[in-house]
Please model this.
Amino acid sequence: MLSEGEAVNRPVKAQESKLPRQLTDWLLILGFCAFLFGFGLNYIGLIGADEPRYAQIAREMLARHDWVTPVLGGKPWLEKPALYYWQAMLSYIVFGVSDWAARMPSVVDATLMVVAVYLFLRKFRRGFELDGALMTASAAAVVGFSRAASTDMPLAATFTIGMLAWWTWLESRKRVYLLAFYAFLALGMLAKGPVAPLLAALIVLLFAVVRREHRLLLQTLWIPGIALFSAISLPWYVLVQLRNPEFFRIFILEHNLARFATDLYHHDQPFWYYLPVSLLGLVPWVVFTVAAVIESVRLWRVDGQTSLHSEKGWNAFLVIWLIVPIALFSISRSKLPGYILPALPAGTLLVAEYVRRHISSNLGLPLILLHSMAACLPLIPALMIQYILRFHRLPWGPALYVSTVVALVILVTMVLTLHSSLGARMLRFVTLIPVVLTVAAVLKIGGAMLDERLTARPLASDINRVEAGLLPAAVYHVPREIEYGLAFYRNQPIDNYDRGEVPAGAHLLVAPDGLDPENPPTFLNGRRVSLLGTYEPGHLQYFWVSAPGAKTAGDMDDMKDMHHPD
Model:
């Protein structure tokens, strides 16, 4: 029997122990998100064509004080909606314009998604909320796209929060969560277009069909929710259409319908493309994701009597959420890795549910071994990243042996820990060890070389050291990522000779190695071309091109502002 004093003090002590645990959870979540999403955000410049292009669009919109029409090079750029641009503009206002500031929207969105997973699981799967949050944060695709100045993470985050809100409404029947579902789908509509409500509708519809609850779809179609969705998402679409009559054709017909049905933008891939992409995106949790899907399907029996609110219903919902986006975009003719990012949080949530079911049992040595290999193998190329970038293969020698030994030591430690009685409880933390080391190795060891090989930032810096002023610039036979990268890092429109865009006056030209200044392209006849420098990592050269009719560099007033390398 408890004394009266003990009976009174027990709830107080329980509350005191609960608060430090929640505080520890928040510190762990925010700490891991800060590292996985934000550490070394400026180590590598903007990669590819999309990152610098989106970053520059936000800069130009901010300079024009225009929050409606996306603009690039002074011209409307209507391929994507405005949510990312708005977020980047706010980031520029707070932090100033930079490449890492352009990536902050994805950092914030990914963190909010992880926090939503934590809060959701704390409500419905208490005791496993930290597992699900850290598993979601550490999935390879989440880490990668959280560091990208792109529209993919804003869509994935808003969609994930929306789907979690829908299930919360289903369990609680509180309409405020249904309103949240519609609000976040509206933000998804502003992030990347109608794909957000389309995916949500397909997932809810299929779930209602397989559960034989056809009224569920009608219950979801709630007029106040639809009104809120319209109030959030439609004003921008209406305004941008009124200001740019070509918006409907460019955005809806070309960049949604034509992109899905044809290979208009040359992103064609095999039908099975998203199977390996999804598996890689779920590393290091891929093995347990596959195991969780198989077990969920095996345990799931559609007999018309299983409650929608049961554990089977939640697992069925997650499996459908994972499969529908992958299946839909597999049908699409245009395929890019980021398209299926909204599906992947369902995979990590399945893993958290799998751990919950097996918390009191052994996870099984084969699964533990495969999981540990999936977590540790990326560490070897991460430690060897400089050699791989230089020679495009793994080295044979002491460096490889040392890297392999490091990975093996961690792998053995993981296997022994996970095969113990605390295996399932320790899964999240022992798995994060190789993940953290891999991210740190890629950024600290390979950051500078990745910057040289994959971005235009060092090239722009080299040109700026040679050129005191800011001449117009053009490119010739170079990749799109160089063109758009120079546009951001020089903050100016970049003409492209291949499109017939030749500046009328003196300008800079970036071209591949081998362009002979004494024998320039025929459309430059009558202009003097002088080599200013070479950018060896990108196999590029940059030139000064005179205005028409100039016979010597000394004749040009523009050359007064030019420095020549020693």
